[in-house]
Amino acid sequence: MQKWNLIIDVGECTNCNVCTLATQDEYVGNEWPGIAAEMPKHGHRWIDIKRKERGQPPLVDVAYMPVMCQHCDDAPCIKAAENGAVTKRGDGIVIIDPEKAQGQRQIMEACPYGAVFWNEEKDIPQAWPFDAHLLDAGWAEPRAATACPTGAFRAIKVEDAEMQRIRADEGLQELDPGAATKPRVLYKNLHRFTKCFVAASIAATVDDKEECIQGAAVVLLKGGTEIGRTETDAFGDFRIDRLDPGSGGHVLKIEKEGFAAKTVEFELGDSITLGTITLTASSA
């Protein structure tokens, strides 16, 4: 049976919040029986954009990540609910019944992603229902995906085996693998939130002027083993990404024809910008 899945590319999200606004427009002041009660005008962000800043000036990376109900196959909210208040449809979508869920705060508390909100006025838990009412009406994708101007959202309805192939081919990841909930929302370029990088600028004095050094070879070593390699760009900058936070001592080796090789040792806790590394001209 084909089921819905959502792929979010962190690398394409620009924090425009159009997905958040589209969701608010769809649910604030509107009730969809069996799917969702009205969303409060304030306080709820069923699609919430998280921000992550890595590195230090001038080499900084800022990424944005939409987080919402993950529509898990092994959903903690379903386990916590009483009287069948939360169910999973045959197409993979998780629905919190707005009538049966009344008073069941434990449904909100069970979500490991913080994606279930509490409606104080109606005394119910609420979350993004994958715009199930629109899909049932013939929409090809949720409204958030339609509204996204950068293509950061991609909703697909496929067999589980096909989704596993797509996941492997595109390197998709779960938001929190430790939660072990089997989510149907998967992320691309999640390393921009979960991994760290080392960056620096390479320069040298040439004809009494400090110049950016383009095309310098940069090799990153951990325990004597190469774990990364790149070259500096036209501005003399480089970045080696997808490193494990808190991974301790590393060594950078920088080489460029006409200059003496340079070795830099550093400790990697979180993303680090090493500033300007200056090369010296090799002796003739």
Percent in strands: 35-45%
From N to C, what is the helix and strand string? Answer: EHEEHEEHEEHHEHEHEEEEEEEE
- Round the mean pLDDT to the nearest integer and report it: 97
Oligomeric state, counting identical vs distinct chains: single chain
Termini separation comes to 71 Å
Biggest sheet: strands, sense, closure? 4 strands, mixed
Tally the beta strands.
Answer: 17
| Number of helices, counting only DSSP H or I runs of 4 residues or more | 7
What's the overall geometry?
elongated
In short, what is this structure?
With 284 residues, the chain is α+β, with helices and mostly antiparallel strands. The chain has helices at 18-27, 76-80, 105-110, 132-136, 143-147, 160-170, 191-194, and strands at 3-9, 48-56, 59-67, 86-88, 94-96, 117-119, 124-126, 153-158, 185-188, 196-206, 209-212, 217-222, 225-231, 237-243, 248-255, 262-268, 272-279.
Q: What is the element layout, followed by pairings?
A:
Layout: E1 3-9, H1 18-27, E2 48-56, E3 59-67, H2 76-80, E4 86-88, E5 94-96, H3 105-110, E6 117-119, E7 124-126, H4 132-136, H5 143-147, E8 153-158, H6 160-170, E9 185-188, H7 191-194, E10 196-206, E11 209-212, E12 217-222, E13 225-231, E14 237-243, E15 248-255, E16 262-268, E17 272-279
Parallel strand pairs: 1-9, 10-17
Antiparallel strand pairs: 1-8, 2-3, 4-5, 6-7, 10-11, 10-14, 12-13, 12-15, 15-16
Describe what you observe in this structure.
This protein is an alpha+beta fold. The protein has 2 domains: 3-193, Alpha-Beta Plaits, CATH 3.30.70; 196-279, Immunoglobulins (Immunoglobulin-like), CATH 2.60.40.10. It is 16% helix and 37% strand. It is built from 7 helices and 17 strands. It has helices at residues 18-27, 76-80, 105-110, 132-136, 143-147, 160-170, 191-194, and strands at 3-9, 48-56, 59-67, 86-88, 94-96, 117-119, 124-126, 153-158, 185-188, 196-206, 209-212, 217-222, 225-231, 237-243, 248-255, 262-268, 272-279. Strands 10, 11, 14 and 17 form a 4-stranded mixed beta sheet that branches. A 4-stranded antiparallel beta sheet has the order 13-12-15-16, with no helix packed on it. A 3-stranded mixed beta sheet has the order 8-1-9. A hairpin with a 6-residue loop joins strand 15 and strand 16. The longest helix is centred in the middle third of the chain and has 11 residues, at 160-170. It starts with a strand and ends in a 5-residue tail after the last strand. The model has no long low-confidence stretch (mean pLDDT 97).
